[in-house]
Predict the structure.
Amino acid sequence: MKKLLQTIFSVKNEKYHKVITILGTKIKLFHPKSDDLYYCPICKKYGHFTKMGVKPRYAVKCPNCKSLERHRFLYFIYQKYFLNTQKPIKILHTAPEKCIYDLIKKNPNIEYTAIDISPERYSFCDCKKEDVTCLSFADNTFDFVISNQVMEHILDEKKYLSELTRVLKPDGVFLLNFPVYMDRSKTFQDKTITTPEARERYYGQNDHVRAYGRDVFERLKRDYGAKVIFAKDILNKEQLRKYRISNRDTDFCVVIKK
Ligand SMILES: [Zn+2]
């Protein structure tokens, strides 16, 4: 009996756990079979994915390339736009994710530039120090700009969007993504919230400067002609399951054409 209970309540298996709350105590009821294998389209391997996050999301991280749900979804977006390009193109990548860097570097036709305000954090690549609200690059330099999980850290959102669009060639494409609280209709930002503790409390992370709600999509569509592509728009249920990509609206890519 003890063994059975241990099995039922085990948190070792990094799968979805059914959770109920009784008198304020969260109780894990059961988890599905723990032998599920998922396929990572980035590193082309099957594996037992591991958990990730402060509030853990189970079986979301590829044990090989460390990709998360959003990276595996973005793989299909990048594949559509540039991964297999035969003509020479230039890409600017802000706050580069290693699994995406590895993917892009496979194509010798892509001239790749990585930037960040703290380039020392990216020892795997030649990352240049740049402020995304005041870039040193000339107008019309890049064919693509990719920027994931950056906008929520930037106080001057308009400058971020205008600078990264400015350095695009006339027919260039800006592909970005950022966390959105899909259960909130309005974005929340209060300039008096400045301490790491308060930012963590109100924005969910101590270095975020706002908490986006669903209104951000309408704003980007209206002001920048953006298109928003959700994972479920381009992948069917079986693909979402196989690649372990969220079926909710949290995995998306905003596409801004210059
Ligand atoms: Zn992988």
